[in-house]
């Protein structure tokens, strides 16, 4: 039975206005956070009425984290949550309104009950869903219970970097179970815009808008879309809507000159965002109003170059795993903004999100701050029909959720053959790599796809390499020219794997050194792991300047067209971040930024005076 039903956290937000970024930034209406103290149990019962809620947990933090107040890993994979939601008068839904409870993420499987009655089931720890609580909410309050099940050792589901053992090991970290993203309340009209997706076309100077309504439109339903910049309306279109799923091409007035066109284009150095309003009417009466944003940009390749808006744009990325010591995988608006802005301060123009599908607010800050993002599917580690089915559903849901963010320039369905451990010998695993590449391209032809990042590539839009050699001269020799890369491809087996399979050649693809570095600064007497270990901040800085000098020189020599340094911040036992896990820089930020951008590093860097650099050395 239910012993306690705490109200939503007393100090939680109780108004519909918030200074925080909306938890669904591409389509916003007034909202209220339901995060706070909930009743909690690790009971294995199947119905909330049979559960003894004997403690509390702070949502949205996983029970494994200190911030949850539970900080336990021995929960057995069965987690129960319960709270009562008291509504203000303006929150109670009227006859033509709906009240929705949104869950940003529940790992792995969730069953939701409203006032004790089963309401919905959802599977997938990285994707959002909602529950309609309208009927219960009309009485002014309701109770909601969530049963989250997450088998700790299940290798069939996308785990990313979550360990399947009792304790973190190697490069795998504590698990994240149950509710781990914001839970929030939204009141909507019965008929409303439920989903939007944007596809820019800069060649035709137009935007394709796809919308999905909550239900079939009544006769006379119209959708008005306004796109504006700094308050000036650039597009104002009104169209009759006859079906739930509706497409509309919105064309900008073409200024006809590159300088004026470029002012409307998004790049990391010029992150131009366009404000959007959606107004849904029936017979001239407004029934729904929502806001969002979009951007104009294109991603492609040309020969061996990564092209942004049709022009070469060398990528300077940093690997980001998105963990915090107190909250695990769960961030908040302030932390997302800090990370995005600090990545820019360190001189990078992009970020490779590694083995995590991040909260939509992080992508929104990348949209605003200006970061080119590689978005990656967290890996499962078993290969069987069940894992393929689960990966497919998860990936399609992620693509749907994230595809409108202009910051995302590349999709990564597999990393280092994780989940495809026998690619070199098994036809079915090779076909899986091809299938996920094709599926991703079928869903989104406007971005690049790294089919299996790092090695054993069969199909890919970019030739990606992971190389943690600490010698900067070797890095330059291996990647300083197309000829050197071709030779390296046959000589270097990163991680003991071939770089490519079945004759794939990098000649007509951009070559991206998508993992390198991994320099750990671990003072004497402290423990931690990294690819290269140094003891002081000065040595870290000099080593970073040397490695970045080499890869930036490889960019100058047209061998590489991008890199990704490992990594932005420490992650538990992995201590190779430029910042520690509390986000404190380990070295002078300005020196790091100059080295990242390929500007003259500190004179103490001996590589700058090396004749071997100028003349070239063999790999």
What can be said about the biggest beta sheet?
8 strands, parallel
Described by the principal axes of the CA atoms, the overall outline is globular
Low-confidence stretches: 1-18, 606-619
* Strand neighbour order, sheet with most strands: 29-28-27-26-25-34-31-30
Rounded mean pLDDT score = 91
CATH hierarchy: architecture of the largest domain? Alpha-Beta Barrel
Class per helix and strand makeup: alpha+beta
Distance between the termini: 68 Å
CATH structural class of the largest domain: Alpha Beta
Protein name: Glycosyl hydrolase family 2
GO biological process, one term: carbohydrate metabolic process
Keywords: Hydrolase
Organism: Deinococcus yavapaiensis KR-236
């Amino acid at each position: 039975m239910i012993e306690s039903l705490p109200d939503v956290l007393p100090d939680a937000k109780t108004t519909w206005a918030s200074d925080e970024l909306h938890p669904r930034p591409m389509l916003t209406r007034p909202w209220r956070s339901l995060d706070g103290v909930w009743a909690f149990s690790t009971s294995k019962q199947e119905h909330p009425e049979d559960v003894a809620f004997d403690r509390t947990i702070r949502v949205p933090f996983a029970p494994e984290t200190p911030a949850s107040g539970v900080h336990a890993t021995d929960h057995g994979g069965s987690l129960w949550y319960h709270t009562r939601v008291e509504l203000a008068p303006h929150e109670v839904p009227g006859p033509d309104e709906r009240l929705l409870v949104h869950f940003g993420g529940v790992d792995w499987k969730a069953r939701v009950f409203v006032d004790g009655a089963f309401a919905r089931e959802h599977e997938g720890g990285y994707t959002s869903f909602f529950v309609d609580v309208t009927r219960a909410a009309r009485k002014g309050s309701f109770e909601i219970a969530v049963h989250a099940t997450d088998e700790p050792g299940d290798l069939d589901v996308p785990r990313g970097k979550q360990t399947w053992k009792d304790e973190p090991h190697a490069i795998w970290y504590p698990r994240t179970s149950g509710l781990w993203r914001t839970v929030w309340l939204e009141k909507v009209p019965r008929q409303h815009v439920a989903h939007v997706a944007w596809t820019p076309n800069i060649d035709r100077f137009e935007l394709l808008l796809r919308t999905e309504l909550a239900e079939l439109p009544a006769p006379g339903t119209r959708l008005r879309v306004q796109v504006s910049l700094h308050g000036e309306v650039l597009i104002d279109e009104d169209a009759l809507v006859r079906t739930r799923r509706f497409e509309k091409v919105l064309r900008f007035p073409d200024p006809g000159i590159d300088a004026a066109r470029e002012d409307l284009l998004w790049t990391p150095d010029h992150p131009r965002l366009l404000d959007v309003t959606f107004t849904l009417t029936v017979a001239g009466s407004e029934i729904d109003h929502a806001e969002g944003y979009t951007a104009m940009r294109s991603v492609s390749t040309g020969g061996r170059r990564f092209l942004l808006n049709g022009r070469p744009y060398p990528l300077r990325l940093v690997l980001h795993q998105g963990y915090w010591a107190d909250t695990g995988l769960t961030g908040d608006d302030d932390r997302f903004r800090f990370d995005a802005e600090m990545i820019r301060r360190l001189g990078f123009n992009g970020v490779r999100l590694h083995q995590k599908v991040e909260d939509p607010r992080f992508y929104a800050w990348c949209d605003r701050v200006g970061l080119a993002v590689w978005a990656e599917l967290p890996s499962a580690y078993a290969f069987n029909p069940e894992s393929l089915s689960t990966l497919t559903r998860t990936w399609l849901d992620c693509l749907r959720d994230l595809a409108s963010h202009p910051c995302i320039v590349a999709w990564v369905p597999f990393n280092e053959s994780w989940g495809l451990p026998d690619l070199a010998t098994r036809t079915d695993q090779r076909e899986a790599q091809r299938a996920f590449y094709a599926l991703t391209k079928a869903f989104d032809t406007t971005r690049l796809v790294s089919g299996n990042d790092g090695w054993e590539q069969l199909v890919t839009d970019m030739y990606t390499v992971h190389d943690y050699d600490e010698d900067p001269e070797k890095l330059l020799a291996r990647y300083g020219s197309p000829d050197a890369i071709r030779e390296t491809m046959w000589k270097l087996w990163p991680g003991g794997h071939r770089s490519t399979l079945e004759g794939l050649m990098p000649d007509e693809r951009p070559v991206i050194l998508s993992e390198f570095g991994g320099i750990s600064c671990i003072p004497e007497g402290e423990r931690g792991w990294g690819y290269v270990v140094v003891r002081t901040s000065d040595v870290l800085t000099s080593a970073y300047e040397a490695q970045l000098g080499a890869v930036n020189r490889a960019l100058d020599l047209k061998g590489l067209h991008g890199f990704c340094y490992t990594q932005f911040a420490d992650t538990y036992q992995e201590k190779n971040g430029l910042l520690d896990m509390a986000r404190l820089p380990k070295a002078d930020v300005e020196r790091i930024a100059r080295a990242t951008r390929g500007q003259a590093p500190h004179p103490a860097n001996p590589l700058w005076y090396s004749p071997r650099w100028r003349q070239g050395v063999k790999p």
